Amino acid sequence: MNANFGYHADPVRILGIESSCDETAIAIVKGDGDSIIVEKNLIASQAKLHEKYGGVVPEVAARKHTDVIFPLLVEAGVARDGSNIDAIAVTAGPGLVPALRVGVELGKTLAWAWNKPLIGVNHLEGHIYSVWFSGKPSFPALCLLVSGGHTELILMKDHGVYELIGKTRDDAAGECFDKAAKLLGLGYPGGPAVSKAALAGKRDAIEFPRPMLESGDFDFSFSGLKTAVLVRRKEHPEDRVEDVCASLEEAIVDTLVGKTLSAVEKYQPTSVILSGGVSANKRLREKLADALSHAAAQPPFFTPDFAYTGDNAAMIAAAGYFHAKQKDFADPLQVVADPNMRLV
Amino acid sequence: MIFESASVEQTKQIAADIVGQLQGGETLLLEGDLGSGKTTFVQGLADALKADHARSPTFSIMNVYQTNHSKIRELVHLDFYRMKNPRELAELGLEEWLGRKDAVVVIEWPGVVADAAFKNPIRVQLSVVNASERRIDISFGNR
Question: Are both A54 and A83 inside the same structural domain?
Fold first, then answer.
């Protein structure tokens, strides 16, 4: 192990591996001090592997991950002997075990064969680090993580030090978008479909609930909002779909923004991070940025470039880099896919 | 057995009452439209089994909750909503859980899988009556 993680000026290269859910992804990032540069960021469903290796669609299937993970490794330009890689970071959880295992076993194998350090990264932590490619949030940072499977408020006190302060009690915000889109006969994925229709709708046309906004804690609940859309469609079939979408998006965004602001007041973070798949939602970005600019402390706001909002391996490598700086390595013989892996 | 539920709390209570009849090893198939209360029903099962709070597994596909119950050690919560191909199931490693005497498997949106895959499942059919009321039809297999 030649690289001097953290203490020398030498930059280090981290190989990132992600296969926790639908996406298979491989990335190489270069870390130097507190800066991270993405050198390669390949996601199977987006990569132009179609001609070479056959069609690739995101699918919850371990077989799919297995089929594409080596082609991605080759495509990323990883040397056969690992000579251009200093450490390996792999998503160890949470996620679906058969899917996770594909990435975890690859990471372990490479680490063992190359005799390079291995870092087991929590998928949620990866999403938080997706903002480090374009900024350097100061601590404590409050992170709102929103995706199809997650809605969490996390206080990040330092690199690798987290406190979970709130999460959804039922459905994630992204799931609410997707299922409402289904109820409204729109396409998949539902978030972009609802947002697109919302542009032509009135955001105050229908008064949907803002669930749990007054609950006094930082938990979320989006299941009732889904049901509210269902009931509204039955009782008012004459509603314009655009108006339903606009009103629903506003309800989801208001709820997320409202809770985040309450958490800002209580925890007084010096920066706020919005990440995860739903952070691609423009209305959410705008309203949260606007609300924070009017908050007493006006904490700086960080959100990833659109390329890094969804699941990717660059964010896993970025999280791995900061663990590597602290020499927080895992034994390749001990790492296992952990479906319920906790951040704290 | 047909139950009428007037609230989320009642739906959870109906599920909790079912737990009293479980021995471990059962599979429950939950059917019903979006918003009919399937995840709410599972939350009732999880609460009665003193497990962690149950959340929707639509994206995660499978959540496993540790319980605190004399016979049932784990509640396996599955959701096949996003699955299009029954072959995907083969890779989930479900055989590890189905029929295990110390676990209960509950599946939302089981439609993608042929009925024959489950031995004497308990079927739970939920339907929306109005904004708050649900009809819950529970039929036990011929065990």
Answer: yes
d(CA A322, CA A342): 18
Residues in chain B: 143
8 Å CB contact between B36 and B127: yes
Q: Is A334 exposed, middle or buried (0-12, 13-18, 19+ CB in 10 A)?
A: exposed
B96 touches chain A (CB under 8 A): no
* Together in a domain, A149 and A287: yes
Residues of B in Cβ contact (< 8 Å) with A169: 53, 55
Query: What's the domain count of chain A?
Result: 2
Q: What region, left, alpha or beta, does residue A54 occupy, with left being phi > 0 and alpha being psi -120 to 50 degrees? A: left
3-class state of residue A163 by DSSP: strand
DSSP letter at B56 equals -
Q: Is residue A337 part of a domain?
A: no
Chain B residues closer than 8 Å to A147 by CB: 59
Give me the residue from A62, A178, A230 closest to B91, CB to CB.
A62
User: pLDDT digit string (tens) for A120-147?
Assistant: 999 999 999 999 999 999 999 999 999 9
Q: What is the model's pTM?
A: 0.93
Q: Are the beta carbons of A62 and B56 separated by less than 8 Å?
A: no
Residue with tokens 């029903």: B41
- CATH code of the domain covering residue A145: 3.30.420.40
ipTM of the complex: 0.90
Residue A32 has phi, psi (to 5 degrees) of: -145, 105
Residue pLDDT, tens place only, A247-299: 999 999 999 999 999 999 999 999 999 999 999 999 999 999 999 999 989 99
